[in-house]
Amino acid sequence: MKMRKLVAAGLVGAMVCSLAGCGGSGSAAENKGSEAKGEGSYAQVTMAYSTFNNIPAAEDLDKVEEAINEITREKIGAEITLMPIGIADYSSKVSLALQGGEKIDIFHSLGDFNNAVSTDMAYDITDLLDTCAPETKELVGADWLEATTQNGRIYGIPTEKPVALTPMVVYRQDVADELQLDMSSVNSMEDLTPILEQVKAGKPDMTPVAAVQTGEIGVSTTYGDLDFLTDDFYKPIGVLMGDDMTVTDLYSTDLFRERCELVRDWFNKGLVMKDAATTTSAAAELMSSGNYFCYVAAYSYPEADTAASLEATCGFDLGAKMIGSAYLATSDLNALTYMVASTTDVPEAAMKFLNLCYTDKDVINLVIYGLEGRDYVKNDDGTVAYPEGEDASTVPYTAQLSCGTFGNFFLMYPMAGTDPASLEWELEQNKSAKTSPAMGFTYDASKMKTQYTAVKNVISQYLPGLICGSLDPATEIDKFVQALNDAGYSEILADKQEQLNAWLETK
Predict the structure, then answer these.
(1) How confident is the model at residue 114 (pLDDT cuts 50, 70, 90)?
(2) Quick one: which of 113, 188, 223, 266 has the fewest CB in 10 Å?
(3) 84 in a structural domain
(4) Could you read off the pLDDT of 115-137 as tens digits, one per residue?
(5) What CATH number should be reported for the domain holding residue 31?
(6) How many CA atoms lie less than 13 Å away from 100 in the CB half-sphere?
């Protein structure tokens, strides 16, 4: 039926023809002087991207791909296969696919740029940017590209979007109104407790707090002025706290213990979903069920716009309340970094398509919204909405909730209910948010691969339960820290401190 079926069956065939105009570089470049081409002599490019929405049926996805290919065949001589993957499984599926030789040419880091580089998943695109994506290089700018640079080489392109993420509680407005909840009183995670207790008392069959994704109920977004030093947001290994330039073990801090004790209290009172540490459902799906009141996550939009953009997917009137301030670190720029896979057989075509994902409005909106008339409609004011009688769960295709994780956010159609003028607020947030003193530092973990693997296994064992309340911090944090140290944790902290000190000497 289409290239995707061949990929899924492991039967991709390609004939190699020369492409002029772009030169390769990096680990794959030595053997990539040409581009693999399929039917019609078009280079075949597969892009894996995460989605918070439903995975579309193959025949519905085919139509979106064909609309994209009508553009890309002419503009870059390539055909695109879209590979949407559910957010909960994205990182593991991409890693396993690349290790297994499955065809993925473009993917993005999901809070873990450093790991993608240190494990050789990412292609060195330094030279490709100049020859295949000069428009994107100029658009993103040298300062942001520094966040995706290691040892003078560029390995990815940060998403062009509002990056100053502010922690918020997103909640059912109808429930808040019915129970007369004072959401203006909520300015921190701790302030949520009496609100959640009121919800539980007034709606005994409703679980107050839903998971954001597997093993996360929002704790990781509420640490405050914390620089994850290019580690995975959800599995940090060595952080900076405030202006202190000492690499710190987060899991031994009072801050971490207090957060764990708070959510343990919620868990014991029935205020948070019991299987938050293991669920495969994301917040949008859980909220749309009608069984949950709220969730905690970080967004880079004003409160009203955040709520409005999520309502169509969640199916209820929503409100949003900020419970902290934005803090910018290198990871905020490179957490969502689009990369060319080191295993690609079409590096130039992949880079050209990435260029379109940042500069071509039609391509960008096809990936996010699908087909006009079928998947969305345009309103007279320039906003878009789902067709009458449809929503995010019923249209054949949408990746609307991935709007902040893909390409150039500023070229996407705004959803109905959002205020186009909010873009000015978002740009101001990018400029005015407090910034880490280590902004621009990226850690090279290539010497610590063995330790990283062992430490991340320990984190996966303990962290989800601790920050979702299902593990008792009184007994499990000490076990967690001991297991980390046994796995080589201190070696990583020392190596990261050494690199940070060397980086500081250059400033």
Answers:
(1) confident
(2) 188
(3) yes
(4) 889 889 999 999 999 999 999 99
(5) 3.40.190.10
(6) 11
